[in-house]
Amino acid sequence: MEYVTLNNGVKMPMEGFGVYQVPDQAQCEQAVLDAIASGYRLIDTAAAYMNEEAVGKAIAKCGVPREELFITTKLWVQDASYEAAKKAIQLSLGKLGLDYLDLYLIHQPMGDYIGAYRAMEEACREGKLRAIGVCNCYPHVLADICETVDIVPAVNQVELHPFFQQENALALMKEYGVQPEAWGPFAEGNHGIFTHPVLTEIGKKYGKSAAQVALRWNIQRGVVVIPKSVHKERMEQNMDIWDFSLTEDEMKKISEMDLGHSEIVNHFAPEFVRMLHGLKVHD
Known about the structure:
Blueprint: E1 3-5, E2 11-13, E3 16-18, H1 25-37, E4 42-44, H2 52-61, E5 70-75, H3 82-96, E6 103-106, H4 113-125, E7 132-135, H5 139-148, E8 155-159, H6 167-176, E9 179-183, H7 197-206, H8 210-220, E10 224-225, H9 232-239, H10 248-255, H11 270-278
Parallel strand pairs: 3-4, 4-5, 5-6, 6-7, 7-8, 8-9, 9-10
Antiparallel strand pairs: 1-2
Helix pairs in contact: 1-2, 2-3, 3-4, 5-6, 7-8
């Protein structure tokens, strides 16, 4: 495992385990336990995933010292204001059974997210949050946030995979010292990524799968990845990406797979924005 040092000096694993779409509490708890046993130390959840309690139970049972784990959760749109964010941070800490979080992110830049970020800055200064950041911020939004806040986001978690590479977004993050983190590093299984001929052919050379090549490609771009699986064997395979490196030619071949847009979500669609505002994660 390799680590990246965030802009505030905090060290973050370059590969983690995501629990998106694992709402079943027992299954989620077991998946996190299996992930930690497989060597993962970064666990990524969110208030909107409705499984913070399950993640917390796994953390308590795993036997790994708290300081060796890197726990991330996220603020939902419903709580995007200064006062609501203060309460949401405490609610997530309580559900996870933790005294502090290693990384706390604004899940979607909607509502009064600047007000929410001010609350996150306060919690960071108080030691409740070791690092703070954002998700799903396209370049113009990230630039506005960085020019507005006191603590520049440590991380921007966005969709990054061979079919949506966002090189312009990565360039801006580098300019501001914001660490890119990939959600959906497997494109949520679209475009036949697990059997894609380009990735499969490259993988043959190293005895690796198309999935492992896709993860390694992002890692070599300096991107943190958080693949998800509820199968321990797959978790172990996803972790087995640290004993090979892609050549410049192989990286170039993968770069040519870029479609230049997301086919998973359209953040610019008014109906999508309304849907996110309508989703409530608590009373």
